[in-house]
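Worked Example 4.2. Read the sequence first, then its structure tokens.
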Amino acid sequence: MKLTDRGKQAADPPAARRVRLLVMDCDGVLTDGKIYLGASGEELKVFHVQDGQGISLWHSNGYHSAIITGRGAEPILRLRTAELQIGHLVTRSRDKLADLMEIIGGIGLGLDEVAYVGDDIGDIAVLDAVGIPIAVSNCVPDLLDHALYVTECPGGNGAIREVVEFLLRSHRAP
């Protein structure tokens, strides 16, 4: 992962050690952002297996995860969150920051203990609030002013695995 220009000015390296909750947008972060629609209106999503393994590694180290998305596709996301044991799923979010506040209140964490990964303008309020704001490399350019870090991998292509490895290395650092 690379520091953004904002990150070079404001990054607090020990901040990544405080992260206990990894929160992700879905479309454009866990997927490549493409939406596949079947003839009868069913929505399909493609997930990267390395991202799934990264989330499993995150959980095996005792940390929490969540997905907050503005879109629906509940059946697909329920299957994926159950498969990966993601603790919190919010779909059709109209206020991602309010939804995040509800999640962290339920598990007793502060915003400084959250890393959030986004790709588009709907993620800005959350990026501005959390301890470690991260943008995927194929994000909209406006997001870079709100992120401290940007992934090398694009969304849906190993970006979450990259984030998890960065966070776990940070936790092991002296």
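Now turn to a second chain, presented in exactly the same format:
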Amino acid sequence: MAEIGYGYGSEWQLLRYLGHHRNYLNKEILKALKLKNEQIIWKDYPVNKNRLSMDGELTGIKCFEKCFEKDIYKRIDKAWKTFWPQSGTSHNWDGVFTIGEKWFFVEAKAHLDEAHQKCGAKKEESIHLIKSAFEETSGSSELGQQWFESDCYQLANRLAFIKFCENQGIKAKLIYINFLNGWIKNESGFKSVLNQIDWEKVWEEEYKTLSLTKKHKDSIVHVYIDCLKG
């Protein structure tokens, strides 16, 4: 995971909204979820003294460790180790929150290129587990292979995580927070996304590439935040 940019980028903007505009952020999330007065409980990030920010990310299933009884978490952890590779980089969540008993796993995006990634797994055992998870999540071996080979790997592995949660009896959804004007203070070459339509085109292409079903789509919620508002 990259260091947080100063004044720009998805991590910066999410941290900014959590710190300075949390009521606005929560309101927009609830609106996207078609909810009104429910309470959003954000989970704290872990400390990581090796990073400039001194904070890390919530990874994999670690967010469940302090929220479930020890024997339940032990069962979840055991299942996770047979579902997804334990080497390399696990799922890094930009944020995690709960509403009642339902879990929401947050991916924040601020420029269009962030939506496209290919799988970087090299070990045969890891590749086998990923393909197996994709096959189960997509519904067929053919689609599982298609997911694995696509440049929509991040969305594919996030959907696999939601499938894992479902297998464990955990209600969960993906929340994509898509920022507009999220790179306006940066000169690196990345361009701010200026309107919601551009984001929607990207996600429509990814949905088509992965041949997502209605069930898959129902597990994904998109929130659009203009970084010039709050």
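Notes for the reader: The chain has one domain: 33-226. The two ends are 27 Å apart (CA to CA).
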